[in-house]
From TrEMBL:
Gene3D superfamilies: 1.10.10.160, P-loop containing nucleotide triphosphate hydrolases (3.40.50.300), PCRA, domain 4 (1.10.486.10). Pfam families: PcrA_UvrD_tudor, UvrD-helicase, UvrD_C. It is an enzyme of class 5 (isomerase). Keywords: ATP-binding, DNA-binding, Helicase, Hydrolase, Isomerase, Nucleotide-binding. Belongs to the helicase family. UvrD subfamily. This is DNA 3'-5' helicase. Its EC number is 5.6.2.4. The keyword Isomerase applies. Residues 10-290 form the UvrD-like helicase ATP-binding domain. One of its GO terms (molecular function) is helicase activity. Residues 291-565 form the UvrD-like helicase C-terminal domain. It comes from the Bacteria. It comes from Rubellimicrobium aerolatum. The keyword Isomerase applies.
Length: 774
């Protein structure tokens, strides 16, 4: 029929337009980043609506995240107006399956008001089953079982369909426990995330009439980010699309980054076999990024072997090269990025100012976020963390903080409740109730109540003994806080270790455990910047406060995984070091699989940037309380010289150790960029007189062992030339970030006694002060 002229068709290129106008039959849009796949998919939905092919509630549109769904809804709204409000089936797989399952719950033995368990609930339930089965939970933690079961659910395998190769899972008891778990969920009228899809697939398979009804109802199916669908999602889509075959999938094999969670890039590569006669549309023009950014991203991904390969071009002006900068350590990286963001906001390098909403920091691992959160908070730079809780909201961090809070304030009852049985001390609900009653009767804190309850043997047995140990330890830690015996950093570490909290996660075999331990280390590291536990807790209270306020312009901090599909004028990509990115795990595996997924992640990261991409790495990071140097990421070597500008670290304090101190490791890009720069800077004698240079010498002098985690001569990557002998001397005027200006009145080890002009006399770690004029 006559297709009304629609403005949304006008801003599409011919290939996109073909994808939008090929309304019937299977369509695959397979194209690189930023080529307008999502834009075309959105226009296609608008077109279906305006041409009357489907009513809003007859379109099934699947996105990868809720954020993506919201954005798509807004974009469609702009094209078709309020019709978008009638689209209940635009959302994530999970959101759509919840709706379907509520309608047909009884077909799988549930009631429509079933509850959805989160990961913690899931693990708690599995723990009960593991215990009931008499399995040694230390060797076979429930979290590991949860991981195994999730894996099966991703592959759409119920307990009755586990392949022989998998029956040995979880000490040969995995399959039985899986069956028991499913039975238990049913009794509880509950489902976990994986069940949402699994149950709906089961319903479709067992009830042809129900399936047929939805096959007719969903006249058009559209899927974004198809490369990251898992087998269960794939089967679900195929069942629904079988009848009319009006399915349009878009994706990019180079952006498949969820293999670790069961995604099958094979799904997208197999599309033409699954849907013979599919129109395959390739888009090659990138509208998002400048040529330098695209060139850099393209070169990185070209190093992968297993890929289809695509051409990408852009008509945009050349723009800025990808900037590359190395830093002394992670803290300095965060500091530099904070300042660079402030500069961008004002407009730098002759560029228009970039608002904070247009700036993102994309990290490989969530534990990297902490240093950025702290830094941005310190300089008052508004930020938001997207996807996943902020650092201080994470379970393990809250637990650890509860220990610190109780050690500082023994009457903090909320903190007591949180940790009295974490790790498990054999205290049941009844024991905890007893403590509460005793505390109330005696009008004392829960901690005091616990002491009374154990002394009077109201709480006895194994739990009572462990409780006594806990109470005594807490009193000892409190004493130390009061007496300021050990440094607060040592004390914090001691509390985590002696309480058994560290061991709890060390014994935990789940995939998250390693990350949680990393986060705990980050937490202890963060303490170094404060002068007491108390001061630290106050700081965190501020961070938390900042968390509740919303609205307004903010920098986004998120993982690379969470950044999929998004775009920002300026993107920071910190932590490009071997062992962090690519992750140690992917390097240890040896094979290509893990490493290639990491490389796709690098590609995703770079291609988020519209105008500015800044890659950075730190020569030193603290690992296990020791400074370790690391090599710049191998991905840095894959960035072509012609697209990269190597920046010399300014040295935040005026000079720069980029000059003579930086020995560049294996990276040809770095060597090329640095060589000329080094020569130039070395020629500037004033460098050696600058405060930055003096500071570096001082730092390198203090405890080289600490700094490098090994002898300086052995260190790899960035090293500082620590030969000169000048250092702080008594009477020097210095500046400390927290306490301001002061004069050195004494020194001991790596600590300085400083008489601060405002804050009085304090002992501070030498590396946190810089020389000040006067
Ligand atoms: P990714 O693979 O990262 O998800 P994508 O292929 O989905 O990327 P989009 O997000 O749809 O790409 O588009 C990238 C940018 O290019 C958006 O800002 C979009 O508005 C713009 N764009 C897409 N197509 C065109 C076009 N034909 N003309 C002008 N701008 C376009
Ligand atoms: Mg997209």
């Amino acid at each position: 029929g006559a297709v009304p002229r629609a403005p949304y068709l006008d801003d599409l290129n011919p290939a996109q337009r073909a994808a939008v106008e090929a309304l019937d039959g299977p369509v695959l849009m397979l194209a690189g980043a930023g080529t307008g796949k999502t834009k075309a998919l959105t226009a296609r939905i608008a077109h279906l609506l305006t041409t009357g092919r489907a009513r809003p509630n007859e379109i099934l549109a699947v996105t990868f995240t809720n954020k993506a769904a919201r954005e798509m809804r807004t974009r469609i709204g702009r094209m078709v107006g309020e019709a978008v409000e009638g689209m209940p089936w635009l959302g994530t797989f999970h959101a759509i399956c919840v709706k379907l399952l509520r309608r047909h719950a009884e077909l799988v033995g549930l009631r429509s008001n079933f509850t959805i368990l989160d990961t913690d609930d899931q693990v708690r339930l599995l723990k009960q089953l593991v215990q009931a089965a008499g399995i040694d939970e230390k060797r076979w933690p429930a979290r590991q079982l949860a991981h195994v079961i999730d894996g099966w659910k991703n592959r759409a395998l119920g307990p009755d369909r586990i392949p022989v190769g998998d029956v040995s899972a979880f000490d040969g008891k995995g399959v039985d426990l899986y069956a028991a778990y499913q039975a238990r969920l049913r009794d509880l009228n509950a489902v976990d995330f994986g069940d949402l899809l699994l149950h709906v697939i089961a319903i479709f398979k067992a009830h042809e009439d129900v399936l047929a009804q939805y096959q007719r109802w969903f006249r058009y199916i559209l899927v974004d980010e198809y490369q990251d669908t898992n087998i269960a999602q794939y089967l679900w889509l195929r069942l629904l699309a079988q009848g009319h075959r009006n399915i349009c999938c878009v994706g990019d094999d180079d952006q498949s980054i969820y293999g670790w969670r069961g995604a099958e890039v094979g799904n997208i590569l197999r599309f033409e076999q699954d849907f013979p006669g599919a129109a395959v549309i390739r888009l090659e023009q990138n509208y998002r990024s400048t040529p330098h950014i695209l060139g850099a991203a393209g070169a990185v991904i070209a190093a992968n072997k297993g890929r289809l390969g695509k051409t990408l071009w852009t008509s945009l002006n050349e723009g800025e090269k990808v900037r590359l900068i190395g830093h002394w350590d992670g803290e300095e990286e965060a500091r530099w990025i904070g300042e660079e963001i402030e500069a961008m906001q004002r407009g730098t390098r002759g560029m228009d100012p970039i608002p904070l909403d247009g700036i993102a920091v994309l990290v490989r691992a969530s534990h990297q976020m902490r240093s950025f959160e702290d830094r941005f908070l310190t300089i008052g730079l508004p930020y938001r963390v997207i996807g996943g809780p902020r650092f201080y909201e994470r379970q393990e961090i809250r637990d650890a903080m509860a220990y610190f809070r109780l050690a500082v304030s023994p009457d903090d009852d909320l903190a007591f409740e949180r940790i009295v049985n974490t790790p498990k001390r054999g205290l049941g609900d009844k024991a905890v109730q007893t403590i509460q009653v005793v505390a109330r009767q005696n009008r004392v804190s829960l901690l005091d109540g616990a002491r009374i309850a154990t002394d009077s043997r109201l709480v006895a047995g194994k739990g009572g003994n462990e409780l006594r140990v806990f109470v005594q330890a807490m009193e000892r830690w409190h004493d130390q806080v009061v007496r300021e015996g050990d440094t607060h950093v040592e004390l914090a570490q001691m509390i985590l270790d002696e309480s058994g909290y560290t061991a709890m996660w060390q014994n935990d075999k789940s995939p998250e455990a390693a990350g949680r331990l990393e986060n705990l280390k980050e937490l202890v590291k963060a303490l170094e910047q404060f002068d007491s536990l108390q001061g630290f807790l106050e700081h965190v209270a501020l961070v938390m406060d900042n968390a509740s306020e919303d609205g307004g312009e903010k920098v986004s901090i998120m993982t690379l995984h969470a950044a999929k599909g998004l775009e920002f004028p300026a993107v920071f990509l910190p932590g490009w070091e071997d062992g962090l990115f690519p992750s140690q795990r992917s390097m240890d595996e040896g094979g290509l699989k893990g490493l290639e997924e990491e490389r796709r992640l690098a590609y995703v990261g770079l291609t988020r940037a519209e105008r500015v991409a800044i890659v950075s790495f730190a020569g030193n990071r603290r690992v296990h309380g020791q400074w370790q140097s690391s090599l710049p990421s191998r991905f840095i070597d894959e960035l072509p010289k012609e697209h990269v500008e190597v920046l010399t670290p300014p040295g935040l304090y005026g000079g720069g150790y980029g000059a003579a101190g930086m020995a560049v490791g294996a990276s040809p890009v770095l060597q090329a960029g640095m060589a000329s720069d080094l020569a130039e800077r070395a020629a500037r004698a004033d460098v050696y007189a600058s405060p930055g240079w003096r500071r570096l010498q001082a730092r390198a002098q203090v405890r080289p062992q600490d700094r490098f985690g090994r002898e300086p001569g052995e260190s790899r990557g960035l090293t500082i030339d620590a030969t000169a002998d000048s250092s702080f001397t008594l009477g020097d005027r210095v500046f400390h970030q927290k306490f301001g200006y002061g004069r050195i009145v004494g020194a001991e080890g790596d600590k300085l006694d400083i008489a601060f002009e405002k804050a009085g006399e304090k002992k501070v770690v030498a590396k946190f002060v810089v020389p000040a004029p006067g």
